[in-house]
Amino acid sequence: MHPSPTYDVIVVGSGPGGASVARELARRQLRVLVLEQGSAAPLEGTLTQMAGIAAVPGKSAFLHRDASLLVSGIAAGGTSTINFATAAPPPLAMFAAHGIDLGPALESLRAELPMGPLPDTLIGGSVRIGEGVDSTLQTGIANLYVCDASVIPQPWGLPPTLTLLCLGKRLGQFL
């Protein structure tokens, strides 16, 4: 009989936020388990595959309180899978107003990731910073953190992938 594996941290979701938190923690030699409800099947980019990832009512497609459609990707890589990994720099001043300095994380990621022109928009916001989570991204439940597009204080009309990477890197350094 084998002993059950133990982990220092369990990360739920493999999108930009979850993946970057897991990476930072693993770099610090913590034992990290990443849970992902979606498939790791290779992306083909077909309409059928994208619909299966992002158009499942109650799982990946939701109506927001302002009647806008919120779509999340149920796949390895999270919503960045359906946004084809588009990214835009985070609005540093907006986060600074909440006591969060993403500048160092952004500089580090710019040195590491290739960047180019960015299309499309994404609107987030169901557990915004200052409402559902604090400036460390912790919820009201001890040791439960959220690092996805829902924490962004307000939409600014650009894809949030790079912002989530910055938030994940910062969260990984705090944990």
UniProtKB/TrEMBL annotation:
Essential cofactor(s): FAD
Q: In terms of domain of life, where is this protein from?
A: Bacteria
Annotated FAD dependent oxidoreductase domain ranges read 8-41
Keyword Ribonucleoprotein in the entry? The reply is: no
Molecular functions (GO terms):
oxidoreductase activity, acting on CH-OH group of donors
Q: Which controlled-vocabulary keywords does the entry list?
A: FAD, Flavoprotein, Oxidoreductase
Which Pfam families is this protein grouped with? Answer: DAO (PF01266), GMC_oxred_C (PF05199)
Classification via SUPFAM superfamilies? FAD/NAD(P)-binding domain
**Keyword Flavoprotein tagged:** yes
**InterPro entries linked to this entry:** FAD-dep_OxRdtase (IPR006076), FAD/NAD-bd_sf (IPR036188), GMC_OxRtase_C (IPR007867), P2Ox-like (IPR051473)
Domain Glucose-methanol-choline oxidoreductase C-terminal residues, every copy: 125-168
Q: Which family does it belong to?
A: Belongs to the GMC oxidoreductase family.
What is this protein identified as? FAD-dependent oxidoreductase
